[in-house]
Design brief:
The protein has 155 residues and is an alpha+beta fold. 26% of the residues lie in helices and 20% in strands. 9% of the residues are buried.
Length: 155
């Protein structure tokens, strides 16, 4: 946008609060309608994002894994041996248990050249027997597998 200077903020609610506290009509922020109401800001435009389904997610982090009934997505990380077909074998385990992968990314493990950690999201709930059995099999066959957490896919 021409003539507008962007300033990074820690989150949209804090930015809305800061704009409200400064009481300077030459500055503004992009925030939710709830934040605008809370901090008594005028809404100049709505629907300015490029994706109508855009949403911000927030995560709760704890040392203890919490399993909730309404969670239908699970995030895991794992490593598999660096040899032909090993990733295909791991993905076959997910398929054998009828698990639908919705996201997969690989990142270098940071220790060994050509070794990768895989980040996977898939549908399911940690209370399901097939999911627990699948994790047992993965833990027996892989050098490293860890549940990052679970979440509800629909906001």
């Amino acid at each position: 946008m021409h003539g507008i200077k962007g300033i990074a903020g820690s989150n949209t609610a804090i930015a809305a609060k800061e704009v409200s506290e400064r009481q300077d009509i030459s500055i503004g922020t992009i925030c939710s309608s709830e934040a605008a109401k809370r901090y008594n800001l005028n809404i100049l435009a709505v629907g300015i994002n490029h994706n109508k389904d855009n949403a911000t997610r927030f995560a709760s982090v704890s040392k203890q894994l919490t399993v909730q009934d309404n969670h239908d997505k699970i995030a895991v990380i794992f490593a598999c041996p660096h040899r032909s077909g090993s990733l295909a074998g791991v993905l076959g385990i997910f398929a054998d248990y009828g698990v639908n992968l919705t996201e997969i990314h690989s990142r270098p493990d940071g220790k060994n050249q050509w070794e990768y950690i895989f980040y996977v999201d898939f549908t399911g709930n940690l209370k399901e027997g097939r999911i627990r059995t699948m994790f047992y099999q993965l833990s027996e066959e892989l050098p490293f597998v860890k549940i990052i957490g679970s979440y509800q896919s629909k906001l």
